[in-house]
Design goal:
It is built from 16 helices and 14 strands. The chain is of the alpha/beta class. The model is unreliable at about 1-10, about 65-75, about 400-410 and about 490-525 (pLDDT under 50).
């Protein structure tokens, strides 16, 4: 018994990475915004720290105990450096430092914010780092805090000596009073011995060194500002901004529901992408270009007709419904040029306009007079007009209930009457958007295939999925999709890109269609 074999293609990983990179690069404005914000943040940080200087002073904290009388006690156990570090950062020391610097007591709190006190492990040295706007003030601040701490420690030691001296003096007075009351000689000797001990204790207390430490390093005026320089901060801001921009671009790409590429359209629609209309810089370009003008959009429509004839439709006539999920896509342009391309291939074509929400196509196309009809064209539906497709020939166009006014309830029935039989002539039908009206579904059941026109960067993937479900439920055949990259650009950009002179008429050319094995996107080149 054998299970399914899963083949891992390691060559897919570069394609996925390139696809992810392309998705991120679509949001170049967001990435640029992140870089600008990062650079502004780095510049602001560099500017705020460009005029700050830090000076350092160090104080060796000494124990007040007799170093020769406490040989058995370790030096690091004689002084609690954690306690001394907290005392050095206290408000009392800050007030003393403010007085030494000639500042008022009210500025003691602000001075404490510019001070940083550190102590290395297994060390009795306190390091005072003071930051200020000028080198001289930084040095004065570091030295002032070191001196203020030593003065505070000396004051505390002197207060402890005075308290101990007063306590011994009280004991001496009590012993002397007891000696005066008792006249026994033996007791008098014992009391005198005790008094001698107390007097010796007084001498030891008064001879105690109350200086709590020494300044081993005085603060000097720094020559350069503290912290990283402009180059480091700007580089850090650039890196942070780039990371922020990439993150924002990834979030926007992940949350963006619009179709950005042919792969996304193919995945959402589960149908091939038959063509990609390139952007048209001229917003005033005519609707019909096949047979009249050259251009990439006209050649794409020619190649689309060639592909529909060879793959989606029979070799002869066929009926195609051209529809978009919502308004905004170039549905009419694709339908008109597709009809002209079919006529150029030798088919008798009927273009049916079934969109009542727009002006009739017959009012926007170059028409031939009625007396120009041939005997073969006498069987055209009533009200149809002949369209001059230039070098591509001509085709018929009729309106199936659409005049640009409000929707008519019998529009789909009129289209059914106008549709030719499966063996008579080719038909291209353009209707209202699929997700806005049900006319397209009624017409889809009478045609050979449905061609969906979607706007690139404007159509949502959910709309393509809903359109696929509706077409599948109606029993129609979805031939594929055509993506429109946009027709309207800015007028200034159109004028800049517009070449002087009249466009030459396109010569009849044979489109060369390249169909890769794994890519359904249409690639057209002139031959």
């Amino acid at each position: 018994m054998t299970g399914p074999i899963h083949v891992y293609d390691r060559y897919d990983e570069p394609d996925q990475l390139r696809d992810q990179l392309r998705r991120l690069l679509r949001h170049r404005a967001v990435i640029a915004l992140g870089i600008v914000l990062g650079l502004l943040g780095g510049a602001a940080l560099a500017f705020s720290r460009a005029h700050t200087y830090t000076s350092t002073s160090e104080v060796l904290v000494r124990s007040t105990a007799d170093p020769f009388g406490t040989v058995s006690v370790a030096a690091d156990n004689q002084v609690s450096m954690g306690t001394e570090q907290q005392i050095a950062a206290s408000a009392a020391v800050a007030v003393r430092a403010a007085r030494l610097m000639g500042r008022a007591d009210a500025t003691a709190a602000t001075l404490g914010k510019d001070l940083r006190i550190t102590n290395r492990a297994k060390s009795q040295v306190l390091r005072f780092e003071f930051t200020a706007r000028t080198p001289g003030r930084a040095a004065r601040g570091a030295n002032a805090f070191a001196e203020a701490y030593l003065a505070d420690r000396k004051a505390r030691n002197e207060a402890a000596v005075q308290r101990a001296g007063r306590s011994v003096q009280q004991q001496i007075k009590a012993v002397q009073a007891a000696k005066e009351k008792d006249e026994d000689e033996a007791v008098d000797k014992a009391v005198q011995s005790e008094l001698d001990t107390l007097h010796k204790r007084i001498v030891e207390i008064n001879s105690r060194d109350t200086v709590g430490g020494d300044i081993v390093r005085r603060g000097e005026a720094p020559a350069r500002p503290s912290g990283p320089g402009w180059a480091v901060l700007l580089t850090l801001g650039l890196a942070s901004g780039l990371a922020l921009g990439v993150l924002l671009a990834w979030l926007r790409s992940a949350l963006d529901s619009r179709v950005r590429s042919a792969d996304e359209a193919r995945a959402a629609l589960r149908a091939p992408v038959l063509g990609l209309l390139p952007p048209e810089p001229d917003e005033d370009a005519p609707l019909l270009t096949v047979g009249h003008q050259g251009g990439d959009r006209a050649e794409t429509c020619r190649a689309l007709a060639y592909r529909l004839r060879r793959t989606g439709l029979p070799a002869g006539a066929g009926r195609v419904l051209v529809v978009s999920p919502r308004r905004g896509a170039a549905t009419e342009e694709v339908a008109v040029n597709l009809a002209a391309a079919f006529a150029e291939c030798g088919d008798e074509v009927l273009l049916v306009d079934a969109d009542p929400g727009t002006p009739a196509l017959t009012t926007r196309l170059p028409l031939l007079p009625d007396d120009a009809r041939t005997p073969e064209e006498a069987s055209l539906p009533e009200g149809s007009r002949l369209v001059d497709a230039g070098a591509a020939g001509r085709f018929a166009c009729c309106v199936g209930g659409g005049t640009g006014g409000p929707a008519q309830p019998g529009g789909s029935a009129a289209v059914h009457r106008l549709l030719p039989g499966p063996d008579s002539r080719a038909a291209v039908v353009v209707t209202r958007p699929l997700l806005e009206h049900a006319d397209a579904l009624a017409v889809a059941q009478r045609v050979d295939g449905v061609l969906l026109v979607a706007g690139l960067d404007t159509t949502r993937r959910d709309d393509l999925k809903r359109a696929h479900e509706l077409i599948d439920c109606s029993g129609a055949t979805l031939l594929g999709a055509v993506l429109d990259a946009g027709r309207r650009r800015g007028r200034l950009r159109a004028l800049l890109r517009r070449r002087p002179g009249r466009r030459p008429e396109a010569e009849p050319v044979t489109p060369v269609v390249e169909l890769p094995a794994q890519d359904e996107t249409l690639t057209v080149s002139r031959g």
